[in-house]
Design brief:
Helices cover 9% and strands 55% of the residues. The protein is built from 3 helices and 16 strands. The longest helix has 18 residues, at 2-19. Pfam families: PagL (PF09411). This is Lipid A 3-O-deacylase (PagL).
């Protein structure tokens, strides 16, 4: 009898734990899209329609603590995506491992609208080769970076299944680690289905939870990258090292404004100046301003950078865009690690790794 009571007690405990579990999602979706030819030399290899398949696992935390990270409900999870670029001899296929966060804008009823940000790594099976694949100016390394932003409509058929439709803007680049590296931008439309485990009704949270710190945070940090000494062809890599600082001003629970400065020395610019006999310094400095999302431990920054000094004979642009992803670590959440992408108009230039300290 005691054994039966023990078994029943264990079953009761496990059932109670399952009832308190957060909803989880196991999903699959198909992609279909097109490649943006962002420079004239890419037109000949961009006249295809990429297609793919994505498998994903995600979860939705419903606690007050999780809700306060963005004053919203939202999913996060991992995905594997396969893309076929419909040009097997030149572009081949890619295999992508992805992490994503997806806050909901609406959550009442069966129809839910959300925004997803994704970051990951990709393996490309066809890359540039001067002899065997000279037309592929998009990719020059098998391992590269994957970034995406998606708008999603999710319709819950019942408590167990949901269907979704998404518009995604996808980007693949090696971050300037090796040339040529034009990078691929390819929007896709996708439809999919999710299996929902432990689905629950999402309820409105008390207004008392909608409070956030409006004080200004300051940041200091460093960044590092490797850059090719030839911007158009394969060449040796050189170190870029820099420092940054600025401030983050919240304007709502997840939105904020930022401003700062950046200083860096690019040894690839020094090599170019030496090779071409140019009297240019490899030192650059700039001021930045922009917008950012702060969701829990994640920061997504979009900034415009205005050069104060630059090697003008090497870098003709005086304005750039920077897109950054930070993740807070440690108990204090003051240290963040992350990466950023610098771009000039439609052309991605290079990526770097960042270590940032927040002061508040």
């Amino acid at each position: 009898m005691k054994k039966i009571d023990t078994i029943l007690f264990i079953i009761l405990i496990q059932t109670s734990m399952l009832a308190q579990m957060n909803p989880t999602f196991i999903g699959a979706k198909s992609h279909y899209g097109f490649i943006i030819a962002h420079s004239p030399e890419l037109k000949s290899i961009s006249q295809t329609n990429p297609y793919g398949l994505q498998l994903e696992y995600s979860w939705l935390k419903t606690s007050d603590k999780a809700w306060k990270t963005c004053f919203c409900y939202g999913k996060s999870g991992f995905a594997f995506a396969y893309f076929n670029y419909a040009n097997p001899d030149i572009l081949g296929d890619s295999y992508n491992l992805i992490y994503f966060v997806e806050p909901y804008f609406t959550y009442k009823g069966p129809l839910k609208f959300s925004l997803r940000g994704s970051v990951g790594v990709t393996y490309l099976d066809r890359i540039f080769d001067q002899d065997t694949n000279p037309e592929n100016l998009l990719f020059s390394t098998h391992l590269s970076f994957y970034l995406a932003l998606s708008l999603n409509l999710n319709y819950h058929i019942n408590n167990n299944y949901a269907i979704n439709a998404s518009l995604s803007y996808n980007h693949i680049s090696n971050g300037g680690q090796k040339q040529p590296n034009k990078g691929m931008n390819f929007p896709t439309f996708s439809i999919g289905v999710d299996k929902i485990i432990n689905n629950i009704e999402l309820k409105r949270k008390p207004k008392s939870l909608k409070s956030y710190d409006t004080s200004i945070d300051y940041y200091l940090g460093s960044f590092v990258s490797l850059r090719s000494s030839d911007r158009e062809a394969e060449a040796s890599n050189h170190l870029l090292i820099g420092f940054t600082g600025g401030m983050l001003r919240p304007v709502s629970g997840i939105n904020g404004l930022n401003a700062g400065i950046e200083l860096w020395y690019d040894f690839s610019d020094q090599e170019i100046a030496t090779q071409q006999g140019i009297n240019d310094s490899a030192f650059s400095s700039s001021i930045t301003a922009g917008h950012h999302f702060s969701i829990g431990s994640f920061y997504f920054l979009q900034q415009l950078g205005f050069y104060i000094t630059r090697p003008k004979n090497i870098q003709s642009n005086w304005l750039y865009q920077r897109y950054s992803f930070w993740y807070s670590i440690g108990k204090s959440k003051r240290w963040t690690i992350g990466a950023s992408l610098i771009a000039y108009g439609k052309v991605a230039d290079h990526m770097d790794g960042r270590l940032i300290y927040l002061i508040n």
